[in-house]
Each structure stands twice: as structure tokens, then as C-alpha cells.
Amino acid sequence: MRKIVLMSSVSLDGFIEGPNREIDWHRVDAELHQHFNDLVRGYGALLSGRVTHQLMAAYWPTADKNPQSSPEEVEFARIWRNMPKVVFSRTLKHAEWHTTVVREVVPEEIRALKAQPGGDIALSGADLAAEFLRHDLVDQIRLYVHPVLIGRGKPLFAESDALTDLRLIETRRFGNGVVLLHYERDRTTGTAGATDATETTGTADTAGTDDA
Known about the structure:
The chain has an eight-stranded mixed sheet. Helices cover 24% and strands 24% of the residues. Helix 1 (30-41) packs parallel to helix 3 (71-82). By secondary structure, it is α/β, with parallel strands linked by helices. The radius of gyration is 17 Å and the shape is globular.
């Protein structure tokens, strides 16, 4: 069965973006970008919220036509365009570039998606990640820790009453100082990641289906 892999760049103090959605502190050089290209190319689908999807869709569909784009950016644009994508949103009516719009996180539907053939499935966005974690749907976490403290902003992980056990399976240090911490869900301890195993859909007041 395919795995759901939460994948995110974070500052050393745990933020994915600054208070005004700044990500200019990301240190993505040719080595790291090529790593992302090689990794994403092997995925079977990309899952994101509306904000994350629209940010990607505003740039990557035509990035390979930009003469200022690096070879790594040109390559990623072509990977992203053709990759099946699912965007979770209650407000988005339509999306292009092999994108399906889904209104709610329904665990049974996610498990059915995992059971389909193909590569693992990448998940991005803090609010959507919180919803997936609440339903214990995340199998692996790939954190790319950038060597910077930004002080405040949006954290990757929301506050939760649940204990989620993880096992470190890989680390890697890139030349620019970014460090990969790769974890998998440890289900041998008997603790549950979801706060309520009886819930089957996202609640109406959850922002995870629209935000980053």
C-alpha cells in the first residue's frame, strides 16, 4: 500500500513561513532543488490545501518557459505539470493541471487512494497536515530544516492532545546547511495519532481544507 508522506521545509524554530507568509528564508540551491526533483518525480500524487496549490499554480505551469529559470526549475515545472494533484478546498470551484478538487478529508477515501497502484503520495500544508494527523493518516514525515531562526510565523504542527510516536529512518545534511529528518509512523507502541477514531470527515470549522 502506498504511503502518505508529509513533506515540508521548516525553520530551526519550527515555522513553515513568516507572519506575512514569507518564505524568502528558504535556502534552496541546485543540490537541494535536484533532490526535490528526484523525490517528487517518484510520487504518485500531490495533496495540498487551496493556498499552497494556488501558490504553486501561479508559478510552476510556465516556469520552464522563463529564460531566467535554472535547469532544476525547468525540470521541476515539467514534473509538477504532469503530476496528479488533489487540492482540498471548500471554496475552489475548478483547478487545472491534472488537479482534482475535494471538499473534505474523508479517511475512507484517503485509504482507498493509498490502496491504488503507484508511488507514494506527498502531503503539504500545515492545516491539511493537522487534519491528516488527527485521523492518523500520515505514514512518514520528511522535514527539511533550514539553518535559520525566523522568530514567529506559522508553525508546521498545530497544538494537539494526541501523542504520535515516530521512528527516525534517515538523515541527510546538504551542502547549504539544510538537514533532512525523515521519520516514519511507529504504530508498535499502541498509541493512536487521531484524537477521535470515530470521526470520519473533517469538521466544518476546520481550516485544513483551504489553508496552506
